Amino acid sequence: MNRERTADIRERISALGREVRHRAVPVLFGDRVGLTLFLGVIASLAALWRVGFFITDTYAIANTVINLSEGRLNIAHIEYSLTLGSQPGLYRHGGQVFGRNYGQAALALPFYWLLEGASVIAELRLVLAGAWSLLVAGFASQLGRVLDRSRVTLVGTLLALGLFVANVRLSTPLDPRWNGLLALQLLSLLAAGVVAVAIYRLGCEFHGRRVGLAGGLLAALALPIAFWATIPKRHVMSAALIAVVVFAFGRSRNADQTLPSRALAYAAVGVLAWLHAAEALVVLVVLVPFDLVTAQRNGVRELMAVGAVFVLSLLPFGLTNLLITGSPFTPPRMLWKVGNIAELGPGGDVIVDTGGESAPTPEGTTTPAETTTPGAPGDTQAPGPGMWSRITGLLGGAIGLVAGVVSTTIGFLNAVLTAVIVGVEVTIARLGELWGYATEGINIVFGDIGRFSHVILRSGHIPEVQYGINDQEAIELTVLEVAPMLGTLIAIPIVLGKRGLESGRERLPEQLAAIRSTPRYQTDLFAGTLVIAFTLLFLPQLPLYSQITMRYLVPIMPVAIYGVMRLPAVRRSLRTDFREFLGAYLGTAVIGVAGVTVAFVALDPAIGEAMQFHALLNLAVAGVVALVVVVDTVLDRDLPVGTAIGAAGGAGTTLYVLAGIEYFTYGEFALPVTEWLSAVIPLF
């Protein structure tokens, strides 16, 4: 009887698990292919995972995670770094020190608590190795189902088991004090997977799985997303949220039930504001007019629902700002930098020099010495009240209660109105600042071609960049040097011009009407405007040292990949020659890593020389793939566009694999197998 009952419980749990998976996979990943892509991207990028600080900005965010886990917003304890001066991103307010990117730090907390609990049970590096092997096995299982080949699942599972055994044999202890940084890195890895899934689902929405899969693969593994995935700056998270916004916008134009996707776009903007307000404001400024003009319905119900979701998504941002700066519209990064008012005490405690000032006593309060006790001995008591006195007392209490409610309501409405007015004023001021940056960016594009080319086209030794900070190494690569497949975007004007010539002038009104009513055209305009606006925002700050891969523009690069997938020559070739695309990508990546390694063993270059080698190689690849796409577009030839796109993606992946394993040797690898591989390759 007990056995039957136990079996029945197990069957119910199993059925519940299947039901949850059946419902969760379509919502989160679109389908099984999206889930497989997500697992494969995270497993691949985690193989390059280094535990350490690559850039000093990360210290402040990691310390913010530790302090949040201890229940405070201010930075009272420094877990990482020896000095406060080496930590950009610390600010002061009210005699306390605060960090920034609180959205990123707060979202990393579940991973921190998970790591803290796991490190108590087992050695931390073995936990990471075991989790990675399970991830590889899960990817193999899903890939086997997608391909309908059980042998793939078997071989992948055995490979995952072998990798776990190898990691155990090579393992050395990993200090649990790294948990704050590891939590941020896990969050960033997850965001890289979200980038892949969002672009995959966006491509599927208009052109099917093959185009979507190619876009998702290139967005996560052939862009600088792959480089920054385990370096927990904000850029990969920003890229994930912006990709979600564009996907949600496109789906809301194309789906039967538009409201959930439309609300998702605004919710992602709200979370992005918690991460970086300026980036969120740019996205919002582009999203709102496109959404209102192209929405299927703008009824009161739809607008109220979208507005409510947006306001709710902004609550963490506003509450964090209110608790730190005293204003829901002023993020911590707008405060004064720490400077010399704080120093580290024994044990990493932050000591703030307040200049000997004492905190004032608030007006209207009493100090402990001024307290009084009602009804003290010696007081005389009056006779009890009569009936009339009781009635008038009750009426007076009721009137007082109503008056209090009315006063509180008026005060609340006044506070809301004041907050709205202040919010509008702050937003207008921020929009003015953004317009100033955009105007300066436009002037750079049309008036300073040399500077613009050092951002988009060719790096080398860029004038005014402080190479002394990078030990005189020219490692600040341009957009096309880190993402050669984006060179194909030069075909967009040709596609538009050709389409206009074929349609004729007499059909111009019909073409404009088609743009206003066709979901994919609406998404094209939204995505293109977003890319331009985001680029213009950061262009006045570029080129700049410590960018490595033009990281300020990384959040918008996956959206640009969507533009590549929308080119007729590209999507036509991917539909018919997807295997050629995939073979070219994997072959170029494998041969590229092996070939460059062999060449560099013979040449023995410095890091700057190695990065410039990739820069020139990727520029050459960008030129070839752009030429193939342009010729195919102009002449309608059946050229191997898919193969060219795959090769360009493989060249980008080659850079990121070697950069992760060899070029930038900071910290230690999370996986002992990768540490062993790095030691075997004798480059740096």
Describe how the helices and strands are arranged.
Layout: H1 2-29, H2 32-46, E1 50-51, H3 57-69, E2 91-93, E3 96-98, H4 102-121, H5 124-147, H6 150-170, H7 179-207, H8 209-221, H9 225-228, H10 235-254, H11 258-275, H12 277-294, H13 300-325, E4 336-337, E5 342-344, E6 350-352, H14 387-447, H15 449-456, H16 479-482, H17 492-503, H18 508-517, H19 519-538, H20 557-565, H21 568-576, H22 578-603, H23 607-635, H24 641-663, E7 668-669, H25 672-680
Antiparallel strand pairs: 1-7, 2-3, 2-4, 5-6
Helix pairs in contact: 1-2, 2-5, 2-7, 2-8, 3-4, 3-7, 4-7, 5-6, 7-8, 7-10, 7-20, 8-20, 10-11, 10-12, 10-19, 11-12, 11-13, 12-19, 14-19, 19-20, 21-22, 22-24, 23-24
Descriptors:
684 residues, mainly alpha, three-stranded antiparallel beta sheet, two-stranded antiparallel ribbon, 25 helices, 69% helix, globular
Note down, in words, how this protein is organized.
This protein is an all-alpha fold and 684 residues long. The protein has a domain at 450-680. The chain has 25 helices and seven strands. The chain has helices at 2-29, 32-46, 57-69, 102-121, 124-147, 150-170, 179-207, 209-221, 225-228, 235-254, 258-275, 277-294, 300-325, 387-447, 449-456, 479-482, 492-503, 508-517, 519-538, 557-565, 568-576, 578-603, 607-635, 641-663, 672-680; strands at 50-51, 91-93, 96-98, 336-337, 342-344, 350-352, 668-669. Strands 3-2-4 form a three-stranded antiparallel beta sheet, with no helix packed on it. A two-stranded antiparallel ribbon has the order 1-7. Helix 2 packs antiparallel against helix 7 (179-207), helix 10 packs antiparallel against helix 11 (258-275) and helix 10 packs parallel to helix 12. It is globular, with a radius of gyration of 29 Å. The termini are far apart.
